[in-house]
Amino acid sequence: MSNKIILDSKIKDFKKKINVSGDKSLSIRWILFSAIADGISKSTNLLMSQDVIAAIKSIRKFGIKIFYNNQICKIYGKGINGFKYKKNITIDAENSGTLGRLILGLLINTSFPIKLVGDKSLSKRDFKRITDPLSKFGAKFTLKKNKNLPLTIFGSNNLKGIKYHENRGSAQCKSAVIFGGLRAKGLTKIKAKKSRNHTELFSKFLNLPIKIKTKKNYDLIEIKKVNKIKANTYNIPSDISSSAFFIVLVALTEKSELTIKNVNINPSRIGVITILKKMGVKIKFNNKKYYNGEKLADIFIKSPKKLRAINCPSKLNAGAIDEFLIIFLVAAKAKGVSYFKNLSELNEKESPRLVWGEKILNKIGVKTISTNDSIKIFGNPNLSINKKVVIKNFLKDHRVFMTSVIAALSFGGHWTIHDRDSTKTSFPDFLKIIRNLKK
Ligand code: S3P
User: Fold this and answer.
1) Domain containing 189: what range?
2) Whose CA is nearest to atom 16 of ligand 1?
3) Are residues 195 and 328 in the same domain?
4) In CATH, what number is assigned to the domain containing residue 75?
């Protein structure tokens, strides 16, 4: 099959109910926690994507047995110190920042050096933000250009708890230090700018010695060394970040309605919902419930009559960090000038996404003014295009690909979008669901 997709017509209005795949952040965290638990953990609805399979392959390198079939997965954990460290182990995080960064927190007690590599995109990303705090526990690292992959970790058997101030709003940095804290003698204290809190909630679900104090702009987290983690059974809820593509598709059609079932609406992840509601999109949460600390709901979306521009408050940035590309499409069709700021982190993702967001908008004739951490988008409520658009060389960033598909289906034109296999990293079923919505 060709690795590009051609789209040349807008989607018609639809009324549907869909399921999207399991949450990526939770799938990877479930694997890492279960790998150091005692006994057999089992999950259902695990995301079967390349990022998650890379996590499974990495854990297997340490002698942990993992079986999976469709979305059901079993991990035979051998306890907190059950990893078999051998000479010359290399783990490959492929495209996954979450895997590459979080797993380092678990490996700070290695008895042999371990090499971590990634694909072209991951090898351009910053790992110093992780190795700096993890070095304070007593582990040592060597990194390419002091910052990038490949890196080698030299663990220690004399790890001590640390104090760490996380001020980027990065859940990956915070989570790597929480994992490190599980292995280090004494107390690890973290002051963290707000970001997704799945690691903290999962630690509580497992009854680990974690304390969390929630302040207005940051959280205070304390974690102690643990000796035993119980095996667990967990049903991974659906991913809000994958849902966001369809929420926006409805927002950009005239008269559609969509229900997305059983989605994780953790308050630290729903920045996209808050932003789109402010812009006039009709979104409701039905059948709300709690599941082991996470909040779930069916999301109902209806096409809005009008879309308003937004001056997006920066405090919503961390909770919508994976959704800005798709939010920019809504701004492109809103009345007025939208403004998104303090977004330098967006250029630290699988590709420089602030740059790519602007490129896509300019290709479809939307005026923008940008700096290295902000963008103004001059919306056009009548936006409809009638020309050729080619999207390629985007470092196979899955979210650039999927955003381009939504733009093609919403605004028309003749689109050639390369690297369709990029969806495999986070959302292999994406195009299948699009085909179902088109029926
Ligand atoms: C993630 C955290 C975010 C996000 C990524 C997943 C996680 O990254 O962009 O897709 O699962 O912890 P940062 O922590 O770098 O903001």
Assistant:
1) 24-226
2) 170
3) no
4) 3.65.10.10
